[in-house]
Structure prediction request, 300 residues.
Amino acid sequence: MTFSLEDKLVVAISSRALFDFEEENRVYEAGDLHAYETLQRERLNVPARPGVAFPLIRKLLALNADAQHVEVVILSRSDPISGLRAFSSCREHGLAIERGVFTRGRPPFGYLKPLNASLFLSANQDDVRDALAAGFPAARVLPESAKMAGTYPDEIRIAFDGDAVLFSDEGERVFQQQGLTAFVTHEVGKRDLPLAEGPLKPLLEALHRLQKLADGAAPMHIRTALVTARSAPAHERAIRTLMAWNIEIDEAMFLGGLDKGAFLREFEPDFFFDDQIRHCESARVVTAIGHVVSGIVNAS
Prediction:
């Protein structure tokens, strides 16, 4: 029987986002592909340590207790033999990951379409940019990010910025080009007009579907939060946009320029997605970070 990915939340993830391959990556970045591959072969029987996205992936796979809701696929620039180490590390850590694509240095994002990916996580900024440009939800993990201690072992907590992440960067463009007053006037005037979808809206949509499937006895639940620099009255358009999409979010924080790190420390997400690197840098000491390299602030 042919296996289908159509009705699943598919996460494509690089081996470096899933495992701590930073030492090996430094050899790769030095330009000596042979030395990198030799090092990986020497360590085929050495399980890699968990990487930044490991806790999130482990929790997402726990959603498959009653049925196959989530599929995780390793999508990596590594060579196929190095892929053996990634799969053996999955086995050692108890991650039920069966599929992978290894391209030996070639950009891998083209495989996101046949994978029907809801999210691509990679530490390679160029690959993330290419994926986003092609219309796929993607984020660059910051390898030095904190890993949550697991205060909520039965809950997947994911926090999203709004503009240029869940929503288009329409409002952000007005803010960057004309300032705060113009931004507020623009958003209040269009409060009844839903914002266009941003790059990670498909991920939020998929998570919302999974939330609806879970019952009280489910071993894992999902909780989502909007953490945005918007404040009243510009908050209204964001909420009305989610209402128009028929997507419910559990918590919303309209911070009006306050530092997001302190609020994320209270929410304790397994992952936080933001388009602005300064917010990512602030939050990386609190939680795992996905930098969504999109919108006007990432245009250069």
Summary: The longest helix spans residues 80-93. The two ends are 47 Å apart (CA to CA). Residues 155-298 form a domain with the Rossmann fold fold (CATH 3.40.50.1000).
